[in-house]
Structures are given as C-alpha cells and as structure tokens.
Amino acid sequence: MKDRREFFSSIFKSLCLCTAGGFLANLALKASDNYALRPPGAEDEKRFLSKCIRCGLCVKACPWNTLKLASLLDSPKTGTPFFKAREIPCYLCKDIPCIKECPTDALDKKHLEQGIESLKIGIAVVDSSTCISFWGLQCDACQRACPLIDRALKLEYKRNERTAKHAFLVPVVDNEVCVGCGLCELACVTEEPAIRVLPREYVLGKAGAHYVKGWDKNDEKRIEQADTSKHFNTKKAQDYLNNGDDL
Ligand code: SF4
Ligand code: SF4
Ligand code: SF4
C-alpha cells in the first residue's frame, strides 16, 4: 500500500515539475520566439502546411544545420521545419538541397529553376531606434553580410537633425529584392538585433486592386484585365456636388 502511495506521489511530483517547467519555459520565451522562419520555398504557409509530412529530410539535407524540426516548446507546429536567423541563418546554397530533398513539394521546386534570388523566406526590417548607425555611429556590419549587397540592403545618406552638421549612413532594405536569408540579422552588432528578418506576411501590406503603378508595365496590365462593366454615373455625381444629394 505504501509503495502504491509513493508511486502515485512520485508521478504527481513529476507532473507538477513538467507543468512548472513548461510554464517557466513559456515565461522565458521572448518576443522573437513567437515567430519563426520557414525553410526556402515555403513562402505560402497554408500551402506548406498542407504538404509538409514532417519527415525532416530538408533538415538532414541542410549542410549548415540551419533548419530544425519544431518541438512542443517551439512556436511553429510541432514537427515542422523552421529556423532562427540570429542562431543560424540560411546560407543560400546554390543548389538549394533542402528544396531538392523535399519529397512532397512542400518546399516549392520552382526555385530550383529560378535560383536563390527568387526565394522569399522573409523580409529584413530595421529598428531605427536601436540601430547604432541612426545614432551617428559608423556601422555597416549588416550591409557587408548581405549576399545581395547594395541591392537588398543599401546604405543611404540621412541628415543628422540633432547636430544639423553631419550625415548618417543608414541601412535600407528593398523588400522586393531581400530574400530573407537572415545573414544581416546574425551580423548585427547590437545586443538584440536591430535588423530582424520577419515572415513576409508580418511585414507586407496590400495596396488593393484599384491602385496601379503607372510606371510598371506588368502592374498596368491589370487595368487591361479590369472589370469595366460598371460605369461611374457622372450625372449623379454632379447632382450630388450641386445639391448635396446622396449618391
Ligand atoms: S538553402 Fe542551404 S543553408 Fe539555406 S536552408 Fe537550404 S540547405 Fe540550409
Ligand atoms: S522535406 Fe518537405 S515534407 Fe519533409 S519536413 Fe521538410 S518540408 Fe516537410
Ligand atoms: S535578409 Fe538581410 S542579408 Fe538576407 S537578403 Fe535580406 S537584407 Fe540581405
């Protein structure tokens, strides 16, 4: 009887310890633990999750040990691959072995033809309040680390409003070119990175179909495909402007 009581008591203690451990682990989570970057080729999270069978072949194929499979304590769905750029970024292997080895096309094989510059893993975002180059100190660590230097990440002149005498050279990211490899985040010299790569859906807005870039031929094509069956009633608009009637 005593043995039985001791047995249940030890199980209870273990459960308490596990729960407390999980609770403490949750407390220890930082804001940066609430998001994760997916491997190359997984830009559409919904598509990716519907196809990934959690086999871990991409993780095995990565020569840099960038990728991990999520455990219960990680924010992505358990068993799915992800990486943290500040720990180990994606080194953009030319032959993209992680995509090559994926047996289900969860990592989109189109990138094997289109090459590493077509990847959209995430977007680098600069925090101007902690990036020391915005303080006037000289730093180009992130820019030098960028494999798409001067295209994805440029240094631009900015006037120092505080002294009104000097100019700053500050990092600026081009969202359309940045592939989200995270090499800049790893290279950043501040205690917590002042440049971070976030999943694209966290960063990008959406202009909406009715705004068109007049200087962009591809974007202008959308006008050709637009639904022109609805016409604006100019008579109603004039009456509204003259009489204050409802349109
Ligand atoms: S491209 Fe290379 S470094 Fe990046 S995740 Fe794939 S295998 Fe790893
Ligand atoms: S290889 Fe493909 S299916 Fe397997 S874990 Fe990686 S992404 Fe998922
Ligand atoms: S994530 Fe950083 S290093 Fe990589 S392409 Fe974008 S700006 Fe360059």
TrEMBL record:
Instruction: Write one Gene Ontology MF term.
Output: metal ion binding
Q: Name one Pfam family in it.
A: Fer4_7
Respond yes or no to whether keyword Electron transport is given for this record.
Answer: yes
Q: Enumerate the InterPro entries for this protein.
A: 4Fe4S_Fe-S-bd, 4Fe4S_Fe_S_CS, MauM_NapG, RnfB_subfamily
Query: Which residue numbers delimit the 4Fe-4S ferredoxin-type domain?
Result: 43-72, 169-200
Origin superkingdom: Bacteria
| Keywords associated with the record | 4Fe-4S, Electron transport, Iron, Iron-sulfur, Metal-binding, Repeat, Transport
Q: Which PANTHER family match?
A: DIMETHYLSULFOXIDE REDUCTASE CHAIN B (PTHR42859:SF10), OXIDOREDUCTASE (PTHR42859)
NCBIfam families recorded: mauM_napG, PRK09476.1
**Official protein name in the record:** Ferredoxin-type protein NapG
Print the organism lineage. Bacteria, Pseudomonadati, Campylobacterota, Epsilonproteobacteria, Campylobacterales
